Amino acid sequence: MDSNLQTEPSQKRSKPHGKVISMRLDAAFFFERGVRFLERNDLQRALKAFRKTIEYEPENPINHCNLAGVLSEMGDFEASNEILLHVLKEIDPGMAECRFYLANNYANMGQYEAAEECVLGYLDADPDGEYAEEAVEMLDILMDEFGGGRAYARWEAKRKEQEQQSAERDGRHLLESGQFEAAVEWLERVIAREPDNTAARNNLSLAYYYTGQYERAIRTGESVLEKEPDNIHALCNLTVFFAHVGPRKSFEACVRKLKNVFPLNYDHAMKLGTTLGLVSEHAAALSVFRKLEQIVEQPEPALLHSVAAAAANTGQYALAKRWWKTLSQYSDMEEVAAYYMECVERAERLGKPLRVSYQYDLPLQVQFTKMRRRLQQADLSAWRSDPLLRASLYWGLRHGGEETQHAVIRTLSHIGDSDAEKALRAFLKRADISPSLQAVALYALQRMGARGRVELYKDGELTSMRMSEVPRDIILSVNPEWQRIANAVEQWLRTAHKSRYIGEAKQVWIAFVKHAFQRTDFTIGKPDIWVAALIYAVLKRHREPMRQKDIAEAFHVSVSSVSKAAARLSHFFVKMP
């Protein structure tokens, strides 16, 4: 009876009047339960729920991370780490956030160096990730408050080594140091081994361009676009090449493409904006730089200057000054910002348009002034490896007038490295250079200690000679006046029956003009003054009975001029025992 009473109600309940809704038990169901329990701070039941998600979906790394998170909240950091390490080793090695969670756990366990390594691993794997800001803050705390930094030092050393290896693979290290001739040789070998190395191919096109091989530069850039039509580096390079050498239609086609893109990558966007500026598309450049400035958290000096330069080049002087004022607040940027603000103010006063370089270094003419000062101070390190200066020098060597080429060769003789030597050797192979330029290049190589054979044009034919065969007095052929002064002194001494002093006079004059060659501010003035001064200085040294007044009158120059010049020459006599 009792049995019948219990059965009947149950039978009635088994026939419900409404529609049955089945309960779907899956990972999503337990995930939602776990989240609700977490919100109530019911960690034990949340732990159970998230363990269930793993039972249903064992290959889903999110489920494992949720469980690790609950264990961390409960203070079981070791168990949490076991799960996180399992995810990275067995399920999803690319799940960068696991490294950030591990860093938190290790920090809570007091294992600060392990925490430092994990947070650096996270920043390496996902530098712009969801936890990037917190990771940087954690790294600062670990280093400042817990005496860390050892893992960071190892990470920084490894990063630099990898960067150097990468730069060597694609030839960037040579371009960045301005060694363009060497870059061509290196990159041609790289491309022969790795024909699909796009970075090396782009860099080779730049190296060809900087060494004046424009057709090869264009062909190389176009070969990149054939394989990768959207390669921003190749497109930017070709835009600059076509702007310089044409054809105009190709240049305009490149500009149209550039105006229709905006890369999210910071470096690519900077290259895009700079390229548009370099080819005088200043309004388009300003648009790119303003967009980029709005999306970066902390604008770098290069970007600040680029916005200001584009604004100045479009006549928006107030905007330009505002950005250069911001730039002046950065360390080591005060001089640059002040220079350009002065340029803007001068342009405003004169009512003239202003054209500003997008490179935030000081302009080349200002750099040359500073370079002269450094030469006098023997401080070459600051500009010897400046790639922008190198590019300008090589361009001037190939395309400048004779005076510019003389100045460039003089500067390269100071730089004196293997790439400067290669540039001078290549210059000597030109059939269109004057004897004076040929002499100055040979003297520069001689001064740099170049060895072996050098090729040059002689009597209309390309020939070669050993550097040991270059005359020791080749310096006199650099300037026709220098040679004429030497000849005039020799002739006077012969006529005066004092030939025994000719060798010494020539030696002193060569030493003096070698010194003069290094100075950009030296001018020879009236040649007869130096003829008279050299004769007088030699005769006086040997106590010959000759008055300064008589020498001056013989050459129709003033006594004071002879006195000053002779005093300068006196420093170049070999000291007597």
Account of the 3D structure:
The protein has 31 helices and 2 strands. By secondary structure, the protein is mostly helical. The chain folds into 4 domains: 128 residues, Tetratricopeptide repeat domain (Serine Threonine Protein Phosphatase 5, Tetratricopeptide repeat, Alpha Horseshoe); 182 residues, Tetratricopeptide repeat domain (Serine Threonine Protein Phosphatase 5, Tetratricopeptide repeat, Alpha Horseshoe); 107 residues; 93 residues, Cyclin A, domain 1 (Orthogonal Bundle). Strands 1-2 form a two-stranded antiparallel ribbon. α23 runs antiparallel to α24. It is elongated.
Would you tell me the overall average pLDDT?
79
- Counted by DSSP, the helix tally is 31
DSSP E strands, number: 2
Helix/strand class = mainly alpha
Q: Low-confidence stretches at least 5 residues in length (pLDDT < 50)?
A: 1-22, 361-379
Bin the strand percentage. Answer: under 5%
CATH superfamily of the largest domain: Tetratricopeptide repeat domain
Helix content: 55-70%
CATH topology of the largest domain: Serine Threonine Protein Phosphatase 5, Tetratricopeptide repeat
**Strand order in the largest sheet:** 1-2
Tally of domains: 4
Instruction: Please name the CATH architecture of the largest domain.
Output: Alpha Horseshoe
CATH class assignment of the largest domain: Mainly Alpha
Query: Span between N and C termini?
Result: 142 Å
List keywords for this structure.
577 residues, mainly alpha, Serine Threonine Protein Phosphatase 5, Tetratricopeptide repeat, 4 domains, two-stranded antiparallel ribbon, disordered N terminus
